[in-house]
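FAQ
Q: What does a multi-component entry look like?
A: The components come first, one per line:
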Amino acid sequence: MTRSLILTLRSMAAFILLGVFASSAAAQSVAISPAEDLSDYRQIGVRVDVTGLANDQILEFVIDDQTPHTQILVTNVEGIERPPPGAALFKCMSDGLPMHQSETFTPLISASTEDVQCALSGFKTGQAYEVRAILRSSDGRVLSRTEPLKLITNVSDVRLLPPNTRPILYVLGSIFLSIITLLLGLRWWEAKSGRSQARNAYFYIGPAILALGLLTFYPIIYGIWLAFTDANQTHLGRSEFIGVQNFFEVFASSGLVQVSLFTLTWTVVNVVFHVVLGLGIALILNRQKLIGRGVYRTILLLPWAVPAYISVLAWQGLLQPEGLVNLFLGANANFLGEANSARISVTLVNIWLGVPFMMMSLAGAMKAIPTDMYEAADLDGVSRYDQFRHITFPNLKSTLVPLSLLSFIWTFNMFNTIYLLTRGGPYLGFGKPGATDIMVTYIYDVAFEYGDYGLAAAWSVVVFLLLLSFSVFYVKQTRATEAST
Amino acid sequence: MAWVRLLVFVFLIGFVSGCGSSRDAKVSAGDVSSLTVWHTYSAGSEEERVFEETVDRFRLANTDLSVEVVRVPFSQTVMQFITASQGGEAPDLIRVADSHLTQIGGVTVNGVPLLEDLRAHLTPAQASRFLPSTIKAMRMDNALLALPVSQSTMSLLYNPALFEQYGIAPPNADWTIDDFIETAQAFRGTGVDGISIPLRWTLWVMPFMSAYGGDLFDGEDAPRFAAPGMAEALDFARALEFELELVNSANQIDASKTKFSRGRAAMIIEGVWNIPDYHEAGIEVSQSLLPTHPETGLRMRPLNTIIGWGISTQSVNKPAAFELALWLSEDDAQQAFLERTLTLPSSTAVTNIALQSDDELVAGFVEQAEYSFSMPTKRGVQQIFLVIDTAIELVTGTDQDAQLTLEQAEEEMRAILRQ
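Then the predicted structure of the entire assembly, as tokens:
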């Protein structure tokens, strides 16, 4: 009785064990098939049908029977969020949804997963690979292995084409042809009107006019066009016309007043000092009795002779709290760090840079004033001041007017000094220009720090119009042309 | 007659000028047997030598490929790459920092991004070699824009000879910020500065902010500059300069380095990249982890910049470019960089080896990298330097309230990130 009971129990146990093995063997069967819709450039889509997985098992893809590719861990994924579509490092899906992933980017699936799809990465286009799926236990034993599946991706690379330069070349060609046609027309008109002496002049000025047209006028016109578009770093080559929106933004900008005021102050102070100091030094150097004029002239010319960026960088070092200037003053002032001292410092450095040019130009112009005028004045007992007032100054006017105009335009657009000394800082407000920002340095930030090319172009157009208006007004006021004749 | 000939010539030029380029013709296949690589290592540096040796080994292993190496300044990488891409002249491979990605990542030319999404190239097995944090830093808008190759962070460096000379206990990993200050004060009257830090710069204030107020960005990558403790950090930085008078070169990076390299400062918070300069100046350098905050218990965490290799979308041979990127980030290459240039690795295996290294500086900096943070790789995040610099300037230069300033800074940063 007992023996038959034991036999019955044994057979029941064997039956149960067989059933367990049979069921587990069925669960560990893994089937692999292609998933064409997941194939892409360098990616091959595969689909694996699995059932009855257990936690800590690993579903692995192996390429050409030797290279491990992807390991998917079977684990409890409760509490782990699926990544949003397209956000995962690797494109895999479990049961039709983006696959979970660990902090270390390992793809994760739950034991109940039945459908796994992956776009396996790193394959070369047009080359066949054998992909096999292997199910392993946590200790690495192979539980199931599929037959190798021969797969290939024929999707080719999508790459950024070089920009279409045809329109630019057409524009340049048109400018070129227009200028040539204009010059030929003028020459023909000259010939027709009988002024044959000037006919060859057009031939001689042709190259210069062409160079100006292509290298100056075209960029200016392009810059103006840019100001009416939404050109932006995020969509280069696809800018659209937006009318005067950028100009509204310029005039509504919170930094407009601050940057305009400092630009104006900076320019006026610099030009005044350039002219006054340049003229003063030129007068001194023009004195016949001055010993060592050549030496002084050479020394005074040095700031102009040394490349500006080297001079400015040298000044940047000198103006540091532990720099030479503080050493001489016995102070520890932060010249470039405080707003007002930074403004004064950049202005002084630029005055230092600009005076030699003014001095040299004016000294040259003084040489051209006939000495007999001074001799006659001396004979008449005219004082030095009156000689300056009635002889020197009127004779210098034809030089001073264009020089001061040039100085104004150069200083207004003087990027190097400010950018190399302070980069426009210090910044005393969020989203506003720095304390030493002038228009051109601010435009640089808008274009290259914020990547807003359209807005920066609008600022540039405003600067261009300001300078153009000033130049016209200044020339009219000073009657420079009349003075020079 | 000459004018007629000139006229014909000019018209011919005009007509031909528009025929130079054609999109319809599809770009030529390009030279698939050559790769151009832009790197940013300093000219003549040991880094450049190790890099060139690694490339030479790649050339030997791939004799069918020619590799041209071009050096570009680190600070001009972004503009040069964008300009080159617009002109169709982008290199195949470019060395970029995560901060560069925040500027290049959002740029498109004719609707196409400039950098290739490497997810299609990288296999999970290859990805598992890298520290997850370094992979994360190379990702922007879900794409993987570069393969991480190194990390770069700052730590506390000190001159052990000066500590020994004045009988002052050197820093250790258990130090608090209070200990740090007390030690710096102990150098008073010796003619040597206890610490030399350019505290007017965001990069040096960030570690204090992280110790006083925790992370600078929350889990959603939104700035949290106005979080509790952050204002105290700014006040503390200000006090170091004005009240405690421990820092008198607050606005100069170079002056801080010069002081340390001349033996006129005992401690400095500095990157690993400057250590060769200090050795050259005859200064023995030791390293310690940055101190912890005595109350919050948080350790000062410096910014960790992750550097990697990105592939241009213009590359005609992306698989080869990717092979080279993989080659440059192989464990052997990273090991060589670590040993010869103290470049911190992005590889998990090399990092583990480095942590056990007998070289105190190597092990110390790798450990410090674990106590560091990376900024989110998002467009506009690079503006943080301008925003925090402005906040520092307002607090130290105009005495504006630190909390109010940081609230404004946070609002400004949020606005920048929204754009």
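Q: Is there any commentary attached?
A: Sometimes. For this entry: Chain A touches chain B through 68 residues (CB under 8 Å).
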